[in-house]
Amino acid sequence: MSVHEQWKSKLGFILAAAGSAIGLGAIWKLPYVAGTSGGGAFFFLFILFTLLLGYPLLVGEFVIGRRAQSDAITTYKKLAPSTLWHLTGRLGVFTSFLVLSFYSVVGGWIILYLFQAFTGGLNDLPQEQYGQLFGNIISNPLYALTGQIVFLLITVYVVAKGVQKGIEKASTFMMPALFVLFLLLVIRSLSLDGAMEGVRFLLVPDFSQLNSEVILFALGQAFFSLSLGVSVMVTYSSYLPKSQDLPKSAVSIVGMNLFIALLAGLAIFPGVFSMGLEVNEGPTLIFAVLPAVFNQMPFGMVFFIAFLILFLFAALTSAFSMVESLVATLAKDDLNKRKKYTWILGGVIFIVGIPSCLSFGLMADTVFFGRTFFDFLDMTVSNILMPLGALVVSIFVTFKVSKTDLLDELKQGSKVGMGFYYTWFYLLRYVTPIAIIIVFLDVLGVLTWIL
Question: Where would you find the membrane-spanning parts of this chain (predicted)?
Answer without folding.
Answer: 12-30, 42-64, 91-115, 142-160, 172-191, 214-239, 251-277, 297-320, 341-364, 384-402, 423-450
